Structures are given as C-alpha cells and as structure tokens.
Amino acid sequence: MKKIKEFNKMRLKEKEVEVGCLYLTTVNQYRAVLAMKGEFLIYAPSSEGTAPLNLNSTKMPFENQPFKKCQIVTFAKKDYQVFDFKGTEAIKHKLNELQLAEAIAQCNAKSAIATLLAE
User: Fold this and answer.
1) If 0-12 CB within 10 Å is exposed, 13-18 middle and 19+ buried, where does residue 111 land?
2) What is the pLDDT of residues 7-30, one digit of tens each?
3) Residue 8 · residue 82 · CB < 8 Å
4) Which of 38, 55, 85, 99 is placed for a possible disulfide with 95 were both Cys, Cβ 3.0 to 4.6 Å?
5) How far is residue 113's CA from residue 77's CA, in Å, rounded to a whole number?
6) C-alpha distances in Å from residue 53, one per residue of 5, 35, 38, 62
C-alpha cells in the first residue's frame, strides 16, 4: 500500500495574519498579504501547486494572478503549512519592501489597496 504524505496542517489565528507576510497553503499556493483594514484584507495568491521558492529566488510567484479581498477570519481558516523561505522554516515569512512591491505590481492591486485603506 502506498503511503500518502500527510502535511502538518495548521490554521492561523486572526492575530497571526500580518501585512507583508508570505504564507503557503497545503495545496502549495503562496499567499502574500498586501493590506489589511478592519476585518478585511487584500492578498496576492499564486496558482495552486506552485513550485517551492528557492534560496536564490528573487521573483514573487504572483504574475498575472488576480488579487483577492476577503475577511481576515476567512483567510486564517485555510490550511497552511510550514515552509522554507531563504533558509528559514516557519508558517509565515516577512517580505522585504521590494518583494512586497513586486507582489502588489504582479497582481495589479495598487488601486484596490488604496480603496480598502480609504474605506
């Protein structure tokens, strides 16, 4: 019988969700939180099944992906996993300013972020 690899599935607490952080779901979809206000956030999702970002990776995986807006509680309830990013394993990883700017540009979220923050 084939053994199926079990992922260490984790749900986030709402207070663990932070702007500028990168998360990975158990279906290998990267998610970068771009903005938060009140109970809503805007995030950039990669395609599901995205290849792992490697140590030398400078490009974010959100090219031509539409940004998403949802409640923070909805975002937190997905199944997430610990992943390696730039040599560190964690459930979330802080993006630097250039990486965050690239994620925003790749999914064309600048005006949506401005609208959310103005609400």
Assistant:
1) exposed
2) 467 889 999 999 999 999 999 999
3) yes
4) 99
5) 22
6) 20, 22, 31, 12
The residues pairing with 80 across neighbouring beta strands, listed in sequence order, are 10, 25
Token pair for 97: 């300013």
Q: For residue 77, give both structure tokens.
A: 């309830």
First to last CA, the chain: 54
pTM: 0.90
DSSP 88-108: EEESEEEPPHHHHHHHHHHTT
Rounded to whole angstroms, the Cα distance separating 88 from 93 reads 8
